[in-house]
What we know:
Residues 2-250 form the ABC transporter domain. By secondary structure, the chain is α/β, with parallel strands linked by helices. The protein has helices at 40-47, 70-75, 93-98, 109-114, 116-136, 152-164, 182-199, 210-216, 234-238, 241-248, 252-261; strands at 2-11, 14-24, 29-33, 55-60, 63-64, 78-80, 170-174, 202-206, 220-224, 227-232.
Amino acid sequence: MIQVENLHKHFGGFHAVDGATLHIAEKSITGLIGPNGAGKTTLFNVIAGVLKPTSGKVLMAGEDITGLEPHELFDKGLLRTFQIAHEFASMTVRENLMMVPPGQSGENLWSTWFHRARIAQEEATLRRKADEVLEFLTIDHIADEKAGNISGGQKKLLELGRTMMTDARIVFLDEVGAGVNRTLLNTIADAIVRLNQERGYTFVVIEHDMDFIGRICDPVICMAEGKVLAEGSLDEIKANEQVIEAYLGTGLKNKVTAGAGA
């Protein structure tokens, strides 16, 4: 689905992404982990068109999408959510969903004058779809709440709901669990798994909660200092010497040797 080849993103002398190469398989839920400053979010931003790469290439289903704008990638089904939810606070939860699909007749001034019936029909269809999405995510009870008033976890579910209002093929989720209580985090995990299994969504998930990663992600990719260190199951990643050193600052072998000499 996504192939990243020798990708670099430099900010002056700082190499936030430093030659990263990885593959995201279609219909997978891939976890992306690593210590703070590993380059995970920068990698997301480059793939999703928020930032332009310094060099390297990004392919989607064999097509070169390197440097495309976010709206161009949106049209191709590549979406990205953010660690801090970007809801329209003064609009209702349902309205936040209804405004997502592009090319609505109501966006055209001419249509608002001469095609009101068509606009009303489109809005009714969008409302039904939005309500179906809210029911799927088990947050239909807050459909008429102002989005600015709902909890952090509900906002994360709302962001996930936005992807369901389009023909999403791959969704990049940035710290979906940040600031979310365990109950809602379980609801989010269930929704991601269902979207993957029932609708064929591909997900890439940045997350520090290893229980969450272990529950839904396979494979898991670990980054450090802008590079890909390892890929495999979470158990394989946890046992990887380079990963241990990146997180803890010392290798497992050194620990064992120190213990034996004590």
